[in-house]
């Protein structure tokens, strides 16, 4: 099995027969050709109370067709879903690699067969002028049987239009893998930006094709389905559908409550999406989950006046502890990658040191990688505890029924956002002022680290306003960019502080074992220079972030 792929499709219902599509009105399409019909037999798995379905997630084992096997799908944005496939081994046991991916959504509950779908699929392919496939149009005749109610069968017909989408080319959805590997807050964001631009362009082309197909289907009597999946349709037809876990609109659109609620819902989803990566040791899994936990906690702190704090403060405390558990693993992961990167740079600058540097880097990598795995497994143990599942339940309730304070949440968003962002900007300035007054090196490092955390919190507060149109969103984006620059620069400094502490410990261990420690000194000096460079750049970056006009969102 490879990594998760992206599926882009729309479902339609209501028409009597499959339509004849006019290729002249379909962008990029040269011809429509028939494909072999398929007979599909799928069993869907869920908890007894359909927790997966409530989150829009489906897990099935399908026989027949060109893609038989196990499939796990979860919703993304718009027409897109993430799909993870696994080959059918012939038994009825859910593959461990898929079982792990649903633990958080299922809250550790058993996943059992709940639905069987038999489908006769009539297919057509939309090809471009060179014969490459752009999309598949499938006319499905479905019979569904609820396994909890044997003998009950419902049937319907629907159309699925799925657009072919190229898989991400640079690892994880075009993230800059170089920066994530070396542990440094690098500047090389060109590949990330170009990858994102290509992804956006591809999404726009897919949407244009789907829109054109939908126009023709509408003329033929078809309309877009309200059900996001066949499983959802089957349970809805029987009245057994679970309550949706999608965000409710508890606050008026345009209000501060609505803006904050949307951001919290997004980060709740990000936390759930990152959970499998921690369990499966995805290189970015720990980092992604830690960031989501920190963003959620920061939102609850910065916008605490919107909420009943008797509800949200305990959630923030739990998110803090989760972040710390993940942070212990992440620190070792970053250190291992950082030392390897620094050793490579030093070796390239002076080849006479390569042997000693390679030996030291190898020792450090082995020790830090081992420590990372130990801490990651400890974090996974935390993710399997009832305490974590209770946190997820609290986040679920926070999204579905946000505990807004009466009169606070309905205030107009721009004015309230401006107050919060300006407050966080002043908080950042106060933390930064302590750097100037610190005389002891240790106190200065502490002040720099506190300033970094304040910059991060200010950035996260501003991100709430970015989706708002006009100058509010534009100014918020500029402020978030400036505070991110402070955060990254001081993140580099903090990494160097932690790295130097580690190098002292590892050098002492190496000396006790009779190993040469010359390279440890070289690495230490390099980290000292990295810290000095960060401090030299700070005044300019800090001044930009503290400009008062930036907070006028």
Automatic annotation (TrEMBL):
PROSITE patterns: CHAD (PS51708), CYTH (PS51707). InterPro entries: CHAD_dom (IPR007899), CHAD_dom_sf (IPR038186), CYTH-like_dom_sf (IPR033469), CYTH_domain (IPR023577). SUPFAM superfamilies: CYTH-like phosphatases (SSF55154). Residues 5-201 form the CYTH domain. Residues 170-201, 238-255 have a biased composition (Low complexity). SMART domains: CHAD (SM00880), CYTH (SM01118). Residues 253-547 form the CHAD domain. Residues 1-23, 163-201, 219-255 are annotated as: Disordered. It holds the Pfam family CYTH. This is CYTH and CHAD domain-containing protein. It comes from Yinghuangia soli.
């Amino acid at each position: 099995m490879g990594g998760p792929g992206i599926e882009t499709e729309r479902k339609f219902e209501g028409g009597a027969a499959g339509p004849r599509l006019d290729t002249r009105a379909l962008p990029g399409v040269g011809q429509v050709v028939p494909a072999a019909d398929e007979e599909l037999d799928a069993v869907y798995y869920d908890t007894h109370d359909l927790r997966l379905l409530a989150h829009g997630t489906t897990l099935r084992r399908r026989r027949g067709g060109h893609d038989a096997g196990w499939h796990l799908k979860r919703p993304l944005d718009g027409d897109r879903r993430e799909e993870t496939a696994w080959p059918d081994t012939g038994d009825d046991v859910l593959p461990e690699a898929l079982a792990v991916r649903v633990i958080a959504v299922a809250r550790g509950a058993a996943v059992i067969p709940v639905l069987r779908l038999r489908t006769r699929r009539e297919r057509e392919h939309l090809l471009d002028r060179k014969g490459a496939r752009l999309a598949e149009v499938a006319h499905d005749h479905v019979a569904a049987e609820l396994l909890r109610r044997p003998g009950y069968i419902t049937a319907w017909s629907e159309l699925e239009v799925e657009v072919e989408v190229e898989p991400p080319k640079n690892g994880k959805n075009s993230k800059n893998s170089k920066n994530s590997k070396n542990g440094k807050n690098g500047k090389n964001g060109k590949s990330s930006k170009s990858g994102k631009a290509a992804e956006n362009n591809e999404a726009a082309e897919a949407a244009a094709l789907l829109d054109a197909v939908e126009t023709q289907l509408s003329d033929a009597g078809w309309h877009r389905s309200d059900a996001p999946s066949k499983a959802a349709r089957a349970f809805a037809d029987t009245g057994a559908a679970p309550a949706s876990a999608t965000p409710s609109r508890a606050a008026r659109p345009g209000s501060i409550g609505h803006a904050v609620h949307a951001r919290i819902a997004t980060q709740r989803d990000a936390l759930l999406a990152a959970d499998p990566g921690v369990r499966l040791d995805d290189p970015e899994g720990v980092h992604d989950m830690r960031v989501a936990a920190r963003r959620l906690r920061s939102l609850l702190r910065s916008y605490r006046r919107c909420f009943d704090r008797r509800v949200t403060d305990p959630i923030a405390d739990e998110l803090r502890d989760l972040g710390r558990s993940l942070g212990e693993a992440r620190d070792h992961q970053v250190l291992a990658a950082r030392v390897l990167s620094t050793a490579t740079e030093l070796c390239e600058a002076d080849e006479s040191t390569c042997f000693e540097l390679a030996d030291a880097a190898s020792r450090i990598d082995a020790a830090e990688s081992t420590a990372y795995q130990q801490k990651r497994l400890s974090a996974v143990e935390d993710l399997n505890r009832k305490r974590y599942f209770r946190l997820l339940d609290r986040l679920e309730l926070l999204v579905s029924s946000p505990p807004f304070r009466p009169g606070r949440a309905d205030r107009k968003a721009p004015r309230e956002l401006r107050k919060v962002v300006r407050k966080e900007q002043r908080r950042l300035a106060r933390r930064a002022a302590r750097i100037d007054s610190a005389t002891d090196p240790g106190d200065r490092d502490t002040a720099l680290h506190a300033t970094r955390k304040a910059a991060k919190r200010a950035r996260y507060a501003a991100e709430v306003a970015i989706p708002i149109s006009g100058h509010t969103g534009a100014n918020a984006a500029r402020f978030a960019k400036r505070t991110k620059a402070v955060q990254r620069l001081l993140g580099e400094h903090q990494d160097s502080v932690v790295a130097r502490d580690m190098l002292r410990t590892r050098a002492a261990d190496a000396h006790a074992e009779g190993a040469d420690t010359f390279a440890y000194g070289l690495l230490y000096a390099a980290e000292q220079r990295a810290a000095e460079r960060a401090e030299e750049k700070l005044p300019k970056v800090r001044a930009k972030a503290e400009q008062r006009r930036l907070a006028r969102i």
